[in-house]
Amino acid sequence: EQDAVIDEAFELYGDRMCAIHLKDFINDENGFRRVLPTEGMLNIKKILTWVKHNKPDMPIVLEETKEADVKNVIDNLNKLYRTIE
Questions:
Q1: CA-CA distance, 24 to 31, in Å (whole number)?
Q2: Distance between CA atoms of 36 and 28, rounded to whole angstroms?
Q3: d(Cα 36, Cα 25) in Å, to the nearest integer?
Q4: Is there a contact between 80 and 38 (Cβ–Cβ < 8 Å)?
Q5: What is the pLDDT along the chain (85 residues), one digit of tens a residue?
Q6: What distances in angstroms separate CA 62 from CA 12, 30, 36, 72, one per listed residue?
Q7: How many angstroms separate the CA atoms of 23 and 25, rounded?
Q8: Alpha carbon distances (Å) from 20 to 30, 31, 42, 44, 48
Q9: How far is 53 from 74, CA to CA, in rounded Å?
Q10: Hey, is 31 helix, strand or coil?
Q11: Contacts of 5 (CB under 8 A, 6+ apart)
């Protein structure tokens, strides 16, 4: 159902959004827990597609991403972003 939630959020609030606070998650035998952006279950491509087509200069905030992980996360986001037409 996350795609419907993402669509609704952009429909309702997209024109007022000025940044995306990007986090990711997995749901396993231990329940929901956070993982690095691009390493979980969140449909980040859907979010980036909206950003690319609607607000390509919108900042993406990676709060709580540890310094040692930032380069890897940014590389993964850039690779994914480049696949979007």
A1: 14
A2: 15
A3: 8
A4: yes
A5: 999 999 999 999 999 999 999 999 999 999 999 999 999 999 999 999 999 999 999 999 998 899 999 999 999 999 999 999 9
A6: 23, 24, 9, 12
A7: 7
A8: 27, 25, 13, 11, 10
A9: 19
A10: strand
A11: none
Give the Cβ contact number of residue 59 at 10 Å.
11
Q: Does pTM surpass 0.85?
A: yes
How far is 83 from 76, CA to CA, in rounded Å? 11
Q: Which helix (H) or strand (E) holds 26?
A: strand 24-28
Q: At what angle do helices 2-13 and 44-54 cross, to 10 degrees?
A: 20
Q: What type of residue sits at position 52?
A: K
Q: Which residues pair with 33 in a beta bridge?
A: 26
Contact call for residues 58 and 19 (beta carbons, < 8 A): yes
Distance of CA 52 to the CA centre of its chain: 12
